[in-house]
Amino acid sequence: PDDCPDNDHHNVDTIDGLILPTITALSVAAWGGGEEMRAECGDGASMTARVTRRSQVLESVSKVWGEVIFDVLRSDDQEGGDSGTILNEAAEKIGMRRVRDSGRDEMSACYLQ
Fold first, then answer.
1. Distance from C-alpha of 99 to C-alpha of 65, rounded to nearest angstrom
2. Closest among 56, 12, 47 to 28, alpha carbons compared
3. Helices marked H in 1-113 — which ranges?
4. Are the beta carbons of 21 and 65 closer than 8 angstroms?
5. Whole-number CA gyration radius for the chain
6. CA-CA distance, 83 to 61, in Å (whole number)?
């Protein structure tokens, strides 16, 4: 425990909220395609978030994130699988603006400045 990082309730939660549901989604997506597996991918990512963090927002976003992972990995198996379409559909589901495919990378820029 002395060598473990403290939980600052921001960075640690954020990283756990990204990594753990991603691992679940990757493992489910590896099993195969189809809408049933896509739903399982999202549900599995959401359940992972639920048991590791107390955040309704994280649960709902993890569900969408799991579907994004599935769609990207299985894009050859389905129609409409280009990354722009996948990301824009996900952004819409969680109430964010459409992804801009040109211009400045705002997320990276906030950490690099």
1. 15
2. 47
3. 11-29, 35-52, 56-73, 83-93, 106-112
4. yes
5. 15
6. 18
At 27-59, the pLDDT tens digits run 999 988 788 999 999 999 999 999 988 888 889
d(CA 57, CA 94): 9
- pTM higher than 0.70, yes or no? yes
Residue 83's identity, in one-letter code, is S
Task: Give the SS3 label for residue 6.
Answer: coil
Query: Sign (positive/negative) of CA torsion 74, 24, 40, 98?
Result: negative
Report the alpha-carbon angle 110-112-113, nearest 5.
70
Distance of CA 100 to the CA centre of its chain: 18
Q: Which amino acid is at 4?
A: C
Structure tokens, 22: 């991603």
Name the packing angle between helices 11-29 and 56-73 (round to 10°). Answer: 40
**Cα three-residue angle 44-45-49, rounded to 5 degrees:** 115
